[in-house]
Design brief:
Elements: H1 12-21, E1 26-29, E2 41-44, E3 51-55, E4 60-64, H2 69-77, E5 81-82, H3 91-94, H4 102-107, H5 115-118, E6 125-131, E7 137-141, H6 153-157, E8 166-173, E9 175-176, E10 180-187, H7 191-202, E11 208-214, E12 219-226, H8 228-242, E13 246-250, H9 253-260, E14 271-277, H10 282-289, E15 293-297, E16 302-307, H11 313-317, E17 322-328, H12 340-353
Parallel strand pairs: 1-2
Antiparallel strand pairs: 3-4, 4-8, 5-9, 6-7, 6-8, 10-12, 10-13, 11-12, 14-16, 14-17, 15-16
Length: 365
């Protein structure tokens, strides 16, 4: 849950001053919707809000870090555009009442089912402004894609969870909304067969934008988006390619929003883990986990597991090509412990960006 007595700087200058004058660790938050709270004085960005530039023709948008994602989505929808990376809304899963912000979304590199086709949130980040651990205001990138030399700070900040700097403004690439979207729902496949079907679909020329499997309902889902004639053609070709019992759902936006936000795992009281792995390893890892509930996304490359509270999932899974993140629960580190070489690189980066160790200390190891 979000902490009370949170300090909310009104602008970037005030944020810079607060960090520069800080004498103790800070718990950095966006809108408080993820329920992450480390030891330290709570410092949030939600008061630094507003879209500062939107150019629909150039498909670029600039917003202050505390701008609600919903506000951005409304502005984009008015121009028939969208955040193509489908940021996850964790409020139902985490039982929080905060508001997802664009800064928090980018700091977490929050990416939904469409990641397999368009890329992650960081791939849409064109530029950032942030305040480092010494209170220095830094700008990197701009409003167009370009090559960089030295640190690519734009990509570095995405997924750093506020441990290297506190985002104050982000520049984004946005994309047009498709004319149509539809989902092919295959019925009755066991996990291994389902992952195999998802792999065949992704390996086909039919441009799938989401590929997931729900063992609880034995439904295997393939989303297709684009111009109407193209969508209808590709859906039928996928149906012929994969065979078996299937149905087509048009206008399946609500289905994918509920899937993205893990509504089925909300209010269960169990720990929720997010496991990244090779898709072909997914079914074996899920079986080994002992989890009560399993969901496969990204064609099996992302597994969501609901397991008994306190379950040491990493010890149970053992060595594999991937990592596990504890999204909801206590008793285990949230992030996978880093290998020695990676840990040295990480420590070096933190020493450079936050030499006093103030920003979300301990969150990522």
């Amino acid at each position: 849950m979000a902490k009370k007595n949170i300090h909310l700087p009104a602008d970037e200058s005030e944020l810079s001053e607060m960090i520069a004058q800080a004498k103790a660790p800070l718990c950095i938050q966006g809108g408080g919707s993820r329920g992450i709270a480390v030891d330290g004085h709570a410092l949030g960005t939600s008061a630094m809000s507003g879209i500062t530039l939107y150019e629909p023709g150039a498909m670029t948008l600039v917003a202050q870090a505390g701008t609600p994602v919903g506000e951005i989505e409304v502005a984009l929808a008015a121009e028939n555009q969208r955040l193509a990376f489908e940021p996850v809304d964790y409020r139902a899963l985490m039982g929080t009442d905060g508001v997802p912000t664009i800064g928090g979304t980018m700091a977490a590199n929050s990416s939904g089912p469409r990641r397999i086709s368009v890329g992650a949130a960081r791939d849409f980040l064109l530029g950032v402004r942030y305040v480092d651990g010494m209170g220095k205001i830094v700008k990197n990138g701009g409003r167009v894609m370009k090559n960089v030399t030295g640190y690519d700070l734009v990509k570095l900040m995405a997924g750093a969870h506020g441990t290297l700097g506190v985002l104050s403004e982000v520049s984004l690439k946005v994309l047009p909304c498709p004319e149509m979207e539809a989902t092919l729902v295959l019925q009755g496949l066991e996990d291994e067969a389902a992952v195999g079907a998802l792999a065949r679909a992704l390996g086909s020329p039919f441009e799938v934008s989401a590929a997931a499997h729900d063992p609880a309902s034995c439904e295997t889902m393939l989303r297709v988006e684009g111009f109407e004639d193209s969508v209808r053609y590709r859906i039928q070709e996928l149906k012929a390619l994969l065979g078996g019992e299937a149905r087509v759902e048009e206008n399946s936006t609500k289905r994918w929003a509920a899937w993205r936000d893990l509504n089925g795992f909300a209010q269960t009281g169990e720990d929720v883990w997010r496991v990244s792995c090779k898709p072909s390893d997914g079914p074996a890892l899920a079986a080994k986990s002992g989890a009560r509930a399993v969901r496969y996304d990204w064609a099996g490359g992302l597994i969501w597991l609901a397991a008994t509270a306190g379950h040491d999932l990493r010890a149970v899974l053992g060595a594999y090509d991937g990592h596990a993140t504890l999204v909801r629960g206590t008793g285990q580190p949230r992030f996978e412990p880093e290998a020695a070489g990676v840990a040295r690189i990480t420590a070096g980066l933190r020493a450079r960006f936050d030499p006093r160790g103030l920003l979300n200390a301990g969150l990522m190891g």
